[in-house]
C-alpha cells in the first residue's frame, strides 16, 4: 500500500515539474530559391519568449508543408532543359540540381527517377539514346553532390512524350529531364 502511494506521489511530482518547464523553440531555417536572379527568403518563425511560454497557449496543429510540393520552394521545379542535340546540364539549372541533391542526401530513403526526353527531330533510336545521355548527365551531377546510386533511376522516353512542334520554342520544351520522386 505504502509503495503504491509513494509511486503515485512520485509520478504526480514529476508531472507537475514537467508542466512548468517552458519550451523554447528554434526559429525555422529560411528557404532560399536560387533559381531567380535575386534571392528570395522566407522569414524565420519568431522564437517564443519564456514569459509567453509560461502561460499555456491554445494548441494549434502544425501543418507540415512538403517542400517538394510547395510552389515557393525550388524543389517544386522538376524539369531541366537542354540545348539542341546536347546532354550537358546548363549553368542556369545547377541551383535546381543542387537543391534536389541536398534534399536527397538529407532524405536517404527518398528515391528519384530521372526521365530523359528529346524533341521529335532525329531517328527514334537516336532520341532514345539522347534522352538516356541527358538523364545520366543529371545523375552524375547529383552523384558528385553526394547522392547515392541506390536513390537514383534513369530512364529515357526519347521522343515518346514530345509534342507535335513547328517552332523552336515548342521544341525547347521537349528537350528535358523530368525529376520524379517515387511514391509521389
Describe it for me?
Helix 3 packs across helix 4 (124-144). This protein is an alpha+beta fold and 184 residues long. The chain contains five helices and six strands; from the N terminus they run H-E-E-H-E-H-E-H-E-H-E. The strands form two sheets. A four-stranded mixed sheet has the order 3-6-4-5. Strands 1-2 form a two-stranded antiparallel sheet. Strand 4, helix 4 (124-144) and strand 5 (152-158) form a beta-alpha-beta unit. The chain has a domain at 74-181: 2-Layer Sandwich (60s Ribosomal Protein L30, Chain: A). It is 35% helix and 14% strand.
Topology:
Blueprint: H1 2-19, E1 32-33, E2 40-41, H2 50-54, E3 79-81, H3 94-106, E4 112-117, H4 124-144, E5 152-158, H5 168-174, E6 176-181
Parallel strand pairs: 4-5
Antiparallel strand pairs: 1-2, 3-6, 4-6
Amino acid at each position: 500500500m505504502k509503495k503504491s502511494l509513494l509511486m503515485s506521489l512520485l509520478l504526480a511530482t514529476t508531472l507537475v515539474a514537467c508542466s512548468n518547464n517552458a519550451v523554447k523553440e528554434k526559429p525555422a531555417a529560411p528557404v532560399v530559391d536560387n533559381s531567380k536572379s535575386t534571392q528570395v527568403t522566407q522569414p524565420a518563425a519568431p522564437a517564443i519568449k519564456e514569459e509567453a511560454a509560461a502561460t499555456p497557449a491554445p494548441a494549434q496543429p502544425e501543418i507540415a508543408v512538403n517542400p517538394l510540393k510547395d510552389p515557393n520552394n525550388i524543389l517544386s521545379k522538376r524539369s531541366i532543359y537542354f540545348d539542341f542535340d546536347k546532354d550537358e546540364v546548363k549553368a542556369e539549372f545547377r541551383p535546381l540540381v543542387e537543391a534536389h541533391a541536398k534534399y536527397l542526401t538529407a532524405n536517404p530513403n527518398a528515391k528519384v527517377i530521372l526521365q530523359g526526353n528529346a524533341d521529335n527531330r532525329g531517328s527514334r533510336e537516336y532520341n532514345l539514346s539522347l534522352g538516356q545521355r541527358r538523364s545520366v548527365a543529371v545523375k552524375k551531377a547529383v552523384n558528385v553532390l553526394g547522392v547515392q546510386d541506390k536513390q537514383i533511376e534513369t530512364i529515357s522516353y526519347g521522343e515518346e512524350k514530345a509534342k507535335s512542334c513547328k517552332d523552336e520554342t515548342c521544341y525547347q520544351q521537349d528537350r528535358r529531364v523530368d525529376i520524379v520522386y517515387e511514391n509521389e
